[in-house]
């Protein structure tokens, strides 16, 4: 059991790459059992109220229509923990787009035609969908997302801020953002012999299985959920979504397998989104720019269906020296679709505001923005007082500055020009917590020298199969090609979802433990392996049940160069560079893909992605990829992603931190700060679209 090239740390090629290129990788909607029917949902067209009647006769008379499920005819289910899954259970309409019926037919075209033929009568009540800073419904929740305290206070912020010779007091606004994965949310459900099989586009099929078991009163071993290939999720597939419940209901009702792919223009209403925020950041500092007072106050919204509080104020608690600090979250429940997880939740909007304010502080104090961050580097986590397990922010800033050529920067805003173009550069820091959950795995050795690792990880395009195989090969001291990985089915050993940049750490820890146990078992055996081979199982319940006394975070630094067209107001990015400190990088190829993917998403957040909630109709006006503008290839310049070598013994056996989200976190602020450097104008509302930029540019002579 030896190999010449260490499997960890090498740029191994994605194991599923060829299958995806040739179309052999099968996604949830590409499984078609014999006799499969198709479903199409009917969304509510009112912003708040109740269903009075659903007229289905015209739809049922159409050729090939099998059923129209309503709140009166759909199967009854147990009340779910997540109220967005309680579909077709009563007449209440909490927001526009809430599903009020489901048409099922022999073909997808027939199902769509039937859905359009359903007529629904409503009783409407006044609705409230507009977030304001003085909304009468604002309240302080018990906690923000992740169980974080909604408010924190340290020292005397008011007195310290009032006495500070240098002060920044600024408010930053973001509209709702939408995940829009390439693969829409889809499920294919099939009941057979008292068992339920579901192919679901999900970031965690173990959770989907357990949710369906509870709702449909089934033993978990009677359900298999497959999520073998997932075409992106970005958090919106991190929890079960209505389509898997609707498909399961329809299959139960009709006795046929049923496939349901949600139309893209319905996704903003039913699969979550990044909540809009209004964030006030106050920084007080001495003449040298060292922070003496920091406050970050967040106002956001949730729905009346469930409470979801975007934890945007959390990163301000640990980023910089702040002896006098206050953070708060206030939220109001509106008649809107339920917000949910989106790549880098909390950190992404929160660091946009904080890092924009840091740029404003640098200008007010007359200190270089990189130097300002270095001067405010804390020795321990200011919030908890714990030492950092490792903190590579300084190294990221310093290396990024060298690679970007920051020293050549003229600090004066609005002085670099190429014809009608103004040019500028900006910087921002990034952070994301190290998260890990208990997982389990099996490792099997066969007599032919091959190994099979089974773990219900989900590969959402991150290369999880490949990296887990590398972890296994390293632990087994075996060639990478001798290892086979099975993921993406709830019949495999239970594992947590792919989310919170925790997947590799969680699954990999269990895989490593199982493989090391297998090595020990094999070394204790004499003679040949039995024909059936040898299998061991391991879990990390004990290892993950308590947090070590360290603050564990990944860090990064983003540098951006932009051009601003003074005739049109168009902002375009010329260069984006990121340097990250994320523990041991297990596969440089897949890591770079994750970093630059996150940076691209941050570019969209800064410049193109915006969502308008129509106050009259209560829905999102930009509800498809023609109106909600994600960056296209022409919008994305050459991206550079680098990382520092970071050893951290307080993480997991691989020494790795999550990398899926930190690439997004600092990008928007770096671009916004570069816009200010280019033009001398400070815009505090995203996205930085031409209509917002142009009125502030100097008139042409």
Layout of secondary structure:
Blueprint: H1 17-22, E1 37-43, E2 49-55, H2 57-60, E3 65-69, E4 92-93, E5 99-105, H3 108-117, E6 119-124, E7 152-154, H4 157-163, E8 166-174, E9 186-192, E10 195-200, H5 205-215, E11 223-226, H6 242-254, E12 258-261, H7 267-270, E13 277-285, E14 291-303, E15 324-334, H8 347-365, H9 369-375, E16 388-390, H10 393-404, E17 416-418, E18 421-433, E19 440-445, E20 451-454, H11 464-476, E21 483-486, H12 503-523, E22 534-539, H13 541-544, E23 551-565, E24 571-581, H14 588-607, E25 639-643, H15 662-665, H16 667-679, E26 685-686, H17 690-693
Parallel strand pairs: 1-12, 8-26, 10-11, 14-15, 16-23, 20-21, 24-25
Antiparallel strand pairs: 1-5, 2-4, 2-6, 3-5, 7-15, 8-13, 9-10, 9-12, 13-14, 17-18, 18-23, 19-20, 19-22, 23-24
Helix pairs in contact: 8-16, 11-12, 14-16
How would you describe what is shown here?
This protein is 25% helix and 25% strand. The chain has 701 residues and is an alpha/beta fold. It has a seven-stranded mixed sheet with strand order 3-5-1-12-9-10-11. Strands 7-15-14-13-8-26 form a six-stranded mixed sheet, with helices on both faces. Strands 16, 17, 18, 23, 24 and 25 form a six-stranded mixed sheet that branches. Helix 11 (464-476) packs parallel to helix 12 (503-523). The mean pLDDT is 96.
């Amino acid at each position: 059991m030896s190999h010449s090239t260490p499997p960890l740390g090498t740029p191994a090629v994605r194991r599923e790459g060829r299958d995806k290129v040739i179309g052999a990788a099968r996604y949830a909607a590409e499984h078609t059992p014999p006799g499969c029917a198709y479903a199409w949902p009917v969304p509510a067209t009112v912003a708040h109220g109740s269903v009075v009647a659903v007229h289905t006769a015209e739809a049922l008379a159409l050729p090939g229509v099998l059923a129209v499920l309503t709140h009166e005819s759909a199967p009854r289910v147990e009340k779910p923990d997540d109220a967005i899954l309680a579909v077709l259970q009563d007449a209440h309409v909490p927001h526009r787009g809430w599903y009020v019926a489901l048409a099922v037919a022999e073909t997808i075209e027939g199902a769509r035609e039937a859905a359009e033929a359903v007529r629904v009568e409503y009783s409407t009540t006044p609705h409230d969908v507009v977030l304001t800073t003085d909304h009468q419904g604002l309240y302080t929740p018990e906690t923000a997302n992740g169980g974080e305290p909604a408010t924190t206070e340290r020292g005397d912020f008011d007195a310290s801020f009032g006495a500070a010779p240098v002060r920044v007091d600024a408010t930053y606004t973001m509209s709702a953002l939408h995940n829009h994965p390439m693969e829409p949310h889809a499920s294919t459900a099939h009941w057979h012999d008292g068992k339920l099989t579901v192919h679901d586009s999900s970031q965690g099929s173990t959770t989907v299985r357990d949710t369906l078991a509870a709702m449909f009163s089934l033993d978990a071993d009677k359900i298999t959920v497959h999520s073998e290939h997932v075409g992106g999720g970005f958090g919106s597939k991190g929890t079960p979504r209505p389509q898997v419940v609707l498909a399961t209901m329809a299959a139960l009702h009709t006795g046929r397998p049923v496939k349901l792919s949600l139309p893209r223009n319905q996704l903003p209403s039913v699969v979550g989104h990044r909540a809009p925020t209004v964030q006030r950041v106050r920084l007080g500092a001495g003449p040298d720019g060292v922070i003496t007072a920091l406050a970050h106050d967040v106002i956001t919204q949730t729905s009346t269906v469930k409470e979801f509080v975007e934890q945007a104020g959390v990163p301000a608690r640990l980023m910089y020296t702040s002896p006098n600090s206050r953070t708060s979250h206030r939220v109001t429940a509106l008649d809107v679709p339920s917000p949910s997880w989106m790549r880098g939740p909390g950190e992404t909007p929160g660091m946009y505001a904080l890092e924009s304010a840091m740029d404003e502080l640098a200008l007010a104090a007359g200190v270089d923005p990189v130097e300002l961050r270095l001067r405010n580097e804390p020795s321990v986590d200011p919030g908890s007082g714990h030492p950092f397990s490792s903190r590579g922010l300084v190294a990221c800033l310093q290396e990024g500055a060298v690679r970007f050529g920051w020293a050549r920067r003229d600090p004066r805003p609005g002085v670099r020009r190429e014809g009608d173009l103004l040019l500028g550069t900006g910087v921002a820091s990034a952070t994301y917590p190290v998260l890990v959950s208990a997982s389990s795995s099996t490792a099997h050795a066969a007599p032919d020298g091959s190994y099979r690792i089974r773990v219900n990880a989900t590969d959402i395009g991150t290369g999880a199969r490949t990296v887990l195989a590398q972890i296994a090969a390293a632990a087994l001291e075996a060639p990478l090609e001798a290892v086979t990985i099975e993921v993406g089915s709830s019949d495999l050993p239970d594992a947590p979802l792919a989310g919170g940049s925790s997947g590799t750490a969680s699954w990999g820890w269990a895989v490593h433990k199982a493989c090391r146990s297998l090595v020990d078992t094999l070394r204790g055996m004499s003679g040949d392996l039995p024909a059936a081979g040898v299998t061991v199982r391991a879990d990390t319940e004990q290892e993950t049940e308590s947090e070590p006394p360290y603050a564990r975070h990944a860090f990064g630094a983003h540098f951006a160069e932009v051009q601003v067209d003074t005739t049109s107001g168009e902002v375009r990015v010329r260069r984006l560079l990121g340097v990250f400190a994320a523990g041991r990088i297990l596969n440089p190829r897949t890591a770079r893909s994750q970093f630059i993917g996150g940076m691209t998403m941050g570019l969209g957040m800064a410049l193109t992605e915006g969502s308008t909630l129509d106050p009259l109709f209560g829905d999102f006006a930009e509800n498809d990829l023609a109106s909600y503008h994600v960056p296209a290839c022409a919008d994305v310049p050459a991206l550079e992603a680098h990382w520092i070598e970071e050893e951290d013994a307080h993480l997991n056996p691989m020494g790795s931190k999550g990398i899926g989200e930190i690439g997004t976190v600092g990008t928007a602020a770096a671009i916004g700060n570069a816009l200010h450097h280019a033009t001398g104008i400070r815009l505090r509302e995203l996205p930085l679209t031409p209509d917002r930029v142009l009125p502030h540019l100097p008139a042409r002579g």
